[in-house]
Write a structure and sequence with these properties.
This protein has 255 residues and is an alpha/beta fold. The chain is built from eight helices and seven strands. It has a single domain, classed as NAD(P)-binding Rossmann-like Domain (Rossmann fold, 3-Layer(aba) Sandwich), CATH 3.40.50.720. Helix content is 43%, strand content 15%.
């Protein structure tokens, strides 16, 4: 097998949460272009743009609408993915939300909603998929989406910062426990990306300029910038990589 062959995902099935737009859509397309079929999960009724892109790449796409603010949908996600494709090989925990407010004024609902989607559901969905990996006796790949706030404190986003710091630590813990089962758990920490989560920042000229002035690459990231890293972490090429959070940030953390 050549080194390039180790990056191929033919015959694999990937669950991608939050697949309908932004980073989840870019990751879904990257995995599909590498050969994986996609089982998407999202809060919208459908993810037509992602479905069209995946099918254009020659791969199959199935979708389940589910509100990931609770764990109620988790058993259905695993059951439907297995029913549809026969097996699960990759999980990408991409779905997430953000709420902005000064820490002194931050509300309990805004705390709970963000922690539930960004951290609690990530753990319990990972647990359910890992159990399926063990049932299949196949091993598998779990990719979490961390953040620059996994390394830094930030401002006015206390629950988001807490959730993303938790993702980095959870990624290491799960890797420690599950590596012996040939389950690789790693994370991607996107830098400042041009997505819905950063629309307020990008529309603020002063804030946007301050951010861009610090990014060595000189631009906001795009969903496509994550696709190659996601394919790598999902592939046999990353079989000895465990518990690591890869920053895809245009050099932000290097400053």
């Amino acid at each position: 097998m050549s080194i390039l062959d180790t990056f191929k995902l033919e015959g694999k099935t990937a669950i991608v949460t939050g697949c309908g737009r932004g980073l989840g859509q870019g990751i879904s397309l990257g995995l599909a272009q590498a050969g994986a079929d996609i089982f998407g999960v999202g809060s919208a009724a459908a993810a037509w743009d992602t479905q069209k892109a995946v099918e254009k790449a020659g791969r199959k796409f199935a979708y389940l609408q589910g509100d990931l603010i609770s764990q109620e949908a988790i058993p259905r996600i695993v059951e439907e993915a297995v029913k549809t494709f026969g097996h699960i090989d990759i999980l990408v925990n991409n779905a997430g939300i953000i709420r902005r407010e000064d820490a002194l004024a931050f509300s309990e609902p805004d705390w709970d909603d963000v922690i539930n989607i960004n951290l609690k559901t990530v753990f319990f969905l990972s647990q359910a998929v890992a159990r399926q990996f063990l049932k299949q006796e196949s091993g598998g790949k779990i990719i979490n989406i961390a953040s620059m706030l996994s390394f830094q404190g930030g401002i006015r986003i206390p629950s988001y910062a807490a959730s993303k710091g938790g993702i980095k630590s959870l990624t290491m813990l799960l890797a420690n426990e599950w590596a012996k089962y040939s389950i690789n758990v790693n994370a991607i920490a996107p830098g400042y990306m041009a997505t819905d989560n950063t629309s307020a920042l990008r529309s603020d000229q002063d804030r946007s300029k301050a951010i861009l002035d610090r990014i060595p690459a000189g631009r906001w990231g795009t969903p496509e910038d994550l696709a190659g890293v996601a394919v790598f972490l999902a592939s046999p090429a990353a079989c000895y990589l465990n518990g690591f959070t890869v920053a895809v940030d245009g050099g932000w953390l290097a400053r």
